[in-house]
């Protein structure tokens, strides 16, 4: 039927409870192949035909779920920082659902009971599952240490302030235990006699320079927060790498946070890669060889 209608040959997709976005994929494919579905059902089994109202529901719920599809794709990647995006994306999702719900409550022309029920359920589940996401210390620290977001990703300024104070304490303790090797060995200035014209100036500089690693780490964090935000499309890891000598103490802690992933998707993909690697002709591979093949497969674009 798709060939007769000169349409792209597409198969329908089925909703699978254990697969993310499968509901969106199913409804999106239904909308894309609407003409072919209507024509096929009319010829084969007319009693199964969807009504115009049911088609309207499908086409109306599709843009509501599109946001969740985009967010899922965004946080499921393993080629970039994902944990730092969780708080900003949750804020975006909640705002998206609230605006959709407001339209359903105020605009009579777009009010559809079934769509309103879906939006209300999504709003309830989002608040239940992600309403306290800013209280999660790992998410909060990752967002603060991402130069694209910092405090802009937070909705609750009180939780941001609490996370920031906790981060200062951790960086202070971490920096006091860590010896940072400077990129270039500093040259010790010669001591000036009391009668030197530079004596007062040198003493003032010494007083203003942090004399302990804890204070130095806090100073680095405050200086970092005062820098302008990085463009969202740019790579924060490259930003930090370029400034690793400017913020040596902070950079050491950043490495502990930006290596965390937001979801278990990358781990689950390894099982799929293991299945592809261990086929019938490779059953005799040793465990060591399988681990090496998986490592190569997961770290290459092949």
Structural class, from secondary structure content? mainly alpha
Percent range of helical residues: 55-70%
Strand percentage lies at under 5%
Number of contiguous helices = 13
Q: Shape, please?
A: elongated
GO molecular function: protein dimerization activity; zinc ion binding
InterPro entries: HATC_C_dom, RNaseH-like_sf, ZnF_BED_domain_contain
Keywords: Metal-binding, Nucleus, Zinc, Zinc-finger
Protein name: HAT C-terminal dimerisation domain-containing protein
What does this structure look like?
The chain is mainly alpha-helical and 302 residues long. Among the domains are: 81-180 and 210-262, no CATH class; 265-298, no CATH class. Helices cover 60% and strands 0% of the residues. The protein contains 13 helices and no strands. The chain has helices at residues 22-32, 34-44, 52-75, 86-106, 113-130, 137-144, 157-177, 199-208, 213-226, 236-242, 248-257, 265-277, 287-298. The longest helix is centred in the first third of the chain and has 24 residues, at 52-75. It starts with 21 loop residues before the first helix and ends with a helix. Residues 179-188 have low confidence and may be disordered.
List keywords for this structure.
302 residues, single chain, mainly alpha, 0% strand
